[in-house]
Amino acid sequence: MATIRDVAQLAGVSTATVSHVLNGTRVVSDVARDRVLEAMEELHYQPNAVARSLRVSATLTIGLIVPDVEIPFFARVAHCMEIAANEAGYSIILCNSDWSFKQELRYLDNLVARRVDGLICISLLLTAEHIAPLLKRNIPVVWFEQKRSGRLIDSVIIDNFKGAYQATLHLITQGHRRIGCITGLSHSLLSIDRLAGYRQALQEHGIAFDEQLICSGDYTPPTGLSGAKQLLNLSEPPTAIFAYNDMMALGAMQAINERGLRVPDDVAVIGFDGIALTEHTCPPLSTVEQPIPEMSKITMNMLLDRINNRAPYESRTVVVEPHLICRSSTLGFTATTQQRRSNSSLEVALV
Amino acid sequence: MATIRDVAQLAGVSTATVSHVLNGTRVVSDVARDRVLEAMEELHYQPNAVARSLRVSATLTIGLIVPDVEIPFFARVAHCMEIAANEAGYSIILCNSDWSFKQELRYLDNLVARRVDGLICISLLLTAEHIAPLLKRNIPVVWFEQKRSGRLIDSVIIDNFKGAYQATLHLITQGHRRIGCITGLSHSLLSIDRLAGYRQALQEHGIAFDEQLICSGDYTPPTGLSGAKQLLNLSEPPTAIFAYNDMMALGAMQAINERGLRVPDDVAVIGFDGIALTEHTCPPLSTVEQPIPEMSKITMNMLLDRINNRAPYESRTVVVEPHLICRSSTLGFTATTQQRRSNSSLEVALV
DNA sequence: CCACTGTACGTAATCGTTTACCTCTGAACG
DNA sequence: CGTTCAGAGGTAAACGATTACGTACAGTGG
């Protein structure tokens, strides 16, 4: 493969001149520039980014650790981060941890070895302690979705309290008083905030908190399904369910359907995250959207600020506003649901 | 950051010895090895992969070009490829082309500049001509999902003919004679093969091919929805729909629901790809699964064979067997659908 | 005519590894 | 005792860029 030396030789100039033509880092006469460009063309010269990286100690590469890119929420994050990175000239090394702590540690090592310029991390298990070696080596890190303490570690998160509050309030506004909640793993800050939002909305409307209406899942459809089943088995089952993410909401809808009940007529369902899919479920799913493109841009900018030493010394946390999206899964009396309601009352009559 | 020289100095040996300890490339006495390992430990030495790459002209990096990782099928591919790559010690640079030809070309340039060791490519637009520069530079390429002609370009694809044949046959076996088909963009080889499979199944069962029952989509739910609407508007609408992917099948189910019809009682639906989500739709969606983990492993092995010059000169194409998965969206008379059938006959009576 | 300035470009060290060649030492052997 | 050989490990030249310095030359002002 042609090197900068080959180009220099063919153009009859030094490698310095070629490099400066390439990067626009110093004035080059038109004559010389043209000869260099011609030589590049002729040799199909493609600069070696590896050599460049070694010399300038910057790889224009960012590591992205996500639990599993097959989960739509993370896929969206990966996509938006990639776009944001590209805009700044960076590439993304994708790391699926598969929820494994060991795997995460392996990735951290690998990314350090590869001398990534920064890291974006979505992880439940890693803490500031594990990230310390990166920071010591001057590789900045931004947490996404989950906040972590620790100086110099920035985070971007959604306002979980407000999101849960909005979702619950919406259900209350629709006339529901018994609202089930399918939570995530309970020890995380995210879960604590969302539960607080849920309780706040209930309290403001004089609805007593009922422990029985809370069950926990792991963000996958099957646990949404089993959780909803459990809720529907209660002597006084809920008329609405708020799930901590859309996938569990999907499972909940499945459970409701399997019971021969209807969404939203018998049980309303609302999710969280706002993955694209929610538009296309039957019925379309209400949800609390996380504005991932915006969050990704913010994340990337924070990271770039650190990479370019433009950031303040202290860690920053940006909290982003969630957006409530109301669809048929919580809204009564659309054409379809009306028709269904009449069916279901017939059903009742027949039983 | 500590370098190999620092380690050598601290251990009182040469950099050659440190390197050989690191890579196990020649015998080192126990005494020296221990001193080196100790020094590494003490300095928190982490070898610089960039420098190594420059020296050995290998980056242990593979480029992956996909249209959009937010589409579940591609997300699964990305995940499985990443696992396969990791097993062989490679990392993945993720490239979302967003279906843009320009973007794809940009990525090709960037990946060459980064000196990736190989490329896995899912693209409708790129052809052998665009890949030629990579091959000339000795960067092997494997096509996934879409075959391309050209020496030295390997491909891994599903047996599209057989998949479509199986899907159609399954619907026929369930008693359907009018089977709608929502196809992809018609010029691709994939589409041609699937249509042939569909027609073959019809023909074998004495069902005339009806042009009216074919409409085309772009693999997104909205076109599945509009396609299905169009089919349902026919004077003699289909009783079953075969969509070229699961996302369009999802849209088709939505259209059917919006009509107040039921899946599968009024119209059966089957998709293609076998994305995880199909298990959790209402009702669960029948589909023709592409065994992506297996296909990814094959793809990666083909690529590694080329990288290590272990491959024959000619291009190879591996055609993988699809797996039919039958779920409630095509199977009648489950407990739930029975109940629904009685409802829908009531409905008819009431109209 | 000299000193100075600005323009254009070249020289060569450097980034952190790997690895082809050497060198050294001590043991074995005839 | 000289030769050979194996074992252990060192030296230094790459890999392909960037960039701090240096140099040559033309123009300008005093």
Quick tags:
homodimer, 351 residues, alpha/beta, 4-stranded parallel sheet, 47% helix, disordered C terminus, DNA-binding
The most extensive contact between chains is: A-B, 62 and 62 residues
What is the subunit organization of this protein?
homodimer
Largest sheet of chain A: 6 strands, parallel
Order of strands across the biggest sheet of chain A?
2-1-3-4-5-11
According to DSSP, the number of beta strands of chain A is: 12
What proportion of the residues of chain A form beta strands (DSSP E)?
Answer: 5-15%
| SSE order of chain A | HHHHEHEHEHEEHEHEHEHEEHEEH
Into which percent range does the helicity of residues of chain A fall? Answer: 40-55%
Q: Judging from the principal axes of the Cα atoms, what is the shape of chain A?
A: elongated
Count of individual helical segments of chain A: 13
CA-atom Rg of chain A in angstroms? 26 Å
Question: What's the gist of this structure?
Answer:
By secondary structure, chain A is of the alpha/beta class. Chain A has helices spanning 4-11, 15-23, 30-43, 49-56, 72-87, 101-113, 128-136, 160-173, 189-204, 221-232, 246-258, 292-307, 335-350, and strands spanning 61-66, 91-96, 118-121, 141-144, 154-158, 179-183, 214-216, 240-243, 268-270, 287-289, 317-320, 323-325.
